[in-house]
Design a protein that fits this description.
The protein has 293 residues and is an alpha+beta fold. 51% of the residues lie in helices and 17% in strands. The strands form two sheets. The chain has a five-stranded mixed β-sheet with strand order 1-3-8-5-6, with no helix packed on it. The longest helix is centred in the middle third of the chain and has 23 residues.
Length: 293
């Protein structure tokens, strides 16, 4: 089983003076970078992609999204993605390392933004014409600064990036009507805490009781929170995170299905297959055939 390609930021830098930030328009990026690499691959950096023209499909962690004018995508390190884009595609793209951002914004982590930190929340924001105009201004300013040699260049790059992230976080929040009330905002904070714990323990711990105990709340209340925020049970969120990792491993690792199941905490392979099929609609073997063809 071949391991999936991992793209590093240095691949796109072409002699630039920093390997922590990269900016380009999509036409140039696709020619210089990986125009013909349409098979699934992953990055070791955070990315934002704004489409201003063209159509297509963008798949991120096995979730397919339509691409059109005004589509804005956010991606985190390690996510698998691929796309099929029309020949007239255009827009802007930038990459950022975690170190570059968080060295300057000590109290604001990139994964605090839901579109970077949550595996449940969508990675696509479809902008209105007015929103697209505002985002285009910030992206073009970011491009100008990236190409400049001005004093305090990195400071302005970081400021412009933060504006894009903050405005996008607000737009995502507007789309989520269930986050409107102060009670739901409190629930959302609990949900973020839950997801952080799941990210830390999911391979070993899969029971609601474990996570509710860590959060000092009852399992019933935890389920109520999760249902309110994402309309799923806590068990579904945990299981979906496990199966996402299973899918990544099935592509990344040269290991047997039994070994992967054991890595994920399933001692009975047959049970792992049942969970995988129920969650993804196909068996692990069928999944491999689909994505490794």
């Amino acid at each position: 089983m071949d391991s999936i390609s991992v793209l590093h930021m240095d691949l796109f830098q072409a002699g630039k003076d920093t390997s922590d930030f990269y900016f380009n328009n999509l036409k140039n990026h696709l020619v210089v970078g990986h125009r013909h690499l349409e098979k699934p691959h992953r990055h070791d950096f955070f990315a934002a992609i704004l489409f201003t023209r063209g159509t297509g499909v963008h798949e991120i962690d096995f979730q397919r999204y339509d691409v059109s004018k005004g589509s804005l995508f956010f991606m985190s390190p390690g996510q698998i993605h691929s796309w099929e884009l029309s020949e007239d595609i255009d827009g802007y793209i930038f990459f950022c390392s975690q170190q570059f951002y968080e060295m300057h914004y000590v109290n604001q982590k990139l994964r605090h933004f839901s579109f970077f930190g949550s595996v449940t929340y969508p990675r696509k924001l479809q902008l209105t014409a007015c929103e697209l105009e505002r985002k285009l201004y910030l992206f073009k300013e970011l491009q100008n600064e990236y190409l400049s040699r001005d004093l305090l260049k990195n400071g302005l790059i970081l400021s412009l990036m933060s504006q894009i992230f903050i405005h996008s976080a607000r737009a995502f929040s507007k789309d989520a009507d269930h986050l409107a009330s102060s009670t739901s905002l409190s629930y959302f904070k609990h949900y973020q805490d839950f997801e952080n714990l799941v990210e830390q323990y999911f391979m070993a711990e899969k029971s609601i009781a474990f996570y509710s105990s860590k959060m000092n709340i009852s399992s019933k209340h935890l389920n109520r929170i999760i249902q309110t925020v994402v309309q799923k049970t806590a068990t579904e969120v945990i299981t979906e995170r496990v199966i996402l990792e299973a899918k990544r491993m099935l592509i990344y690792l040269d290991e047997s299905l039994v070994e992967i199941a054991f890595r994920l905490g399933y001692e009975e392979y047959s049970y792992f297959v049942r969970v995988f099929r129920k969650t993804s609609g196909m068996t692990p073997t069928e999944f491999i055939r689909k994505y490794k063809a």
